[in-house]
Write a structure and sequence with these properties.
Elements: E1 2-8, H1 16-31, E2 34-40, H2 46-57, H3 63-87, E3 92-95, E4 102-105, E5 112-116, H4 119-126, E6 130-134, E7 137-139, E8 145-147, H5 153-164, E9 168-172, E10 193-195, H6 196-204, H7 212-221, E11 225-229, E12 237-240, E13 253-257, E14 260-269, H8 272-284, E15 292-294, E16 301-309, H9 313-322, E17 328-332, E18 335-341, H10 351-361, E19 366-372, E20 375-381, H11 385-395
Parallel strand pairs: 1-2, 1-9, 2-6, 3-6, 9-11, 10-12
Antiparallel strand pairs: 4-5, 7-8, 11-12, 13-18, 14-16, 14-17, 15-16, 18-20, 19-20
Helix pairs in contact: 1-3, 2-3, 5-7, 6-7
The protein binds adenosine-5'-diphosphate, aspartic acid and magnesium ion.
Aspartic acid binds next to loops.
């Protein structure tokens, strides 16, 4: 029999009514002849509330314990959804990440999936059960519960689809992938298809509609993904292998991220040893540094700026306080990263010049820039975000 993985995000399972509706959607697929695996997130803002509670107790809560509390949200939704299936007369079973055989590795709260022992799931499917799996969680070598980082249920769903070698449908609160987050730019256009590479870049640069790691797995195992609304039947977006027609537009999308802060360290003696030490320390604490820029030496000193997740503020402050002698450190939190993404940029020059001109015309100061083969990212102060999004989106016809 054909298998299919469905994934429903937080908003889509936000109320009991919605959970009952989802159960009916899944049953339609089952009636169409699919063996169904359903991955769900925690209801509504549950995960945010669990984080807030933990932070009320401790400014820097133990990551192991955070994983324990964060994983509870998904456990509630799988049990409820499974009950909803049973109530409708369908056999279903709810599995936590551990029960579903999802093995992970890495630092707590940022785990990655190592492998999935899918025998149990396959067994339940062959018994005709709908298998409901908790997103965003697994178990490590030590038998501790782990989580995959915020938005990680997408990764659970795609990894399961890869293991079962079947398509993955991501149902969410928006009816597909848009060129720009429609909440920030309502005129954005819906994309019919988007390549894995572009979606991976858009997601890793802030398009929160899908988790980048999920796309990475889909790309690696060539798993087709369909993203659509959980509330209606409007045609969504297919994420798939690149084909030449996709290159008609040089720029496919614009991603916006408010998740990074910018650290600037000035008056560092111009010795590579100092720079190495700073980044080593950050790496030891699992701080994921993104953009980095360094000024040329002036009177024997240099300045260094880098961006890193706001979530790591506490640990960054701690590390920086250790380097304080003689260095001047400033941390700017009101920062936004705006990135343009498009596979067509590979063979096109002059894009960055055009974008700099647009930003300059609107007095938007750029604090950092990075590029990849298919993207250009600008770090700007958040106060310029709205203008930058609207100017770039209009000019690039997104
Ligand atoms: P879920 O809880 O279903 O995982 P998310 O909140 O993680 O949902 O993702 C859906 C949200 O992603 C949308 O409400 C939308 O505001 C946002 N989003 C960001 N970028 C995009 C984009 N390019 N296209 C569509 N939605 C986007
Ligand atoms: N519940 C988790 C979160 O809010 C995982 C997810 O929704 O994908 O980040
Ligand atoms: Mg999500």
């Amino acid at each position: 029999m054909r298998m299919l993985v469905h994934k429903y995000g937080g908003t889509s399972v936000g109320t009991l009514e919605k959970i009952k509706k989802i159960a009916k959607r899944v049953i339609l697929e089952k009636e169409n002849g699919y063996e169904m695996v359903v991955v769900v997130s925690a209801m509504g803002k549950t995960t945010d509330h669990l984080v807030e509670m933990s932070k009320e107790i401790s400014k820097n809560p133990s990551r192991r314990e955070l994983d324990l509390i964060l994983s509870t949200g998904e456990q509630v939704s799988i049990a409820l959804l499974s009950m909803a299936f049973q109530e409708l007369g369908y056999d279903a079973i709810a599995l936590t990440g551990f029960q579903a055989g999802i093995k992970t590795y890495g630092p707590h709260t940022k785990n990655k999936i190592l492998d999935i022992d899918s025998d149990k799931i396959q067994n339940y499917l062959s018994q005709g059960k709908i298998v409901v799996v908790a997103g965003f969680q697994g178990i490590n070598d030590e038998g501790d519960i782990t989580t995959l980082g915020r938005g990680g249920s997408d990764t659970t769903a795609v990894a399961l689809a890869a293991k079962l070698n079947c398509p993955c449908h991501i149902y969410t609160d928006v009816d597909g992938i848009y060129s720009v987050d429609p909440r920030l730019y309502p005129q954005a256009k819906k994309l019919q298809t988007v390549s894995y590479e572009e979606m991976m870049e858009m997601a890793s640069l802030g398009a929160g509609v899908m988790e980048a790691r999920a796309i990475e797995i889909a790309y690696k195992y060539n798993i087709p993904i369909y993203v659509a609304s959980s509330m209606n039947d409007v045609e969504g977006t297919y994420i798939k292998e690149y084909d030449e027609k996709m290159e008609e537009n040089i720029i496919t999308g614009l991603s916006i991220s408010d998740d990074s802060l910018m650290v600037t360290i000035s008056r560092i003696p111009d010795q590579i040893e100092h720079i190495a030490m700073i980044f080593e320390k950050l790496a030891q604490e699992n701080v994921n540094v993104d953009m980095i820029s360094q000024t040329a030496p002036l009177s024997g000193v240099i300045s260094l700026s880098f961006t890193a997740p706001k979530d790591d503020l506490f640990i960054i402050e701690k590390i920086m306080s250790e380097f304080n002698e003689g260095f001047e450190v400033s941390i700017e939190q009101e920062m936004t990263k705006i990135s343009v993404v498009g596979i067509g940029m590979r063979n096109q020059s002059g894009v960055s010049g055009r974008l700099f001109r647009l930003l300059a015309n609107h007095d938007i100061k750029v604090k950092q820039v990075t590029t990849s083969e298919i993207s250009i990212s600008y770090m700007i102060e958040t106060k310029y975000k709205e203008t930058a999004v609207s100017v770039l989106s209009k000019e690039l016809n997104l």
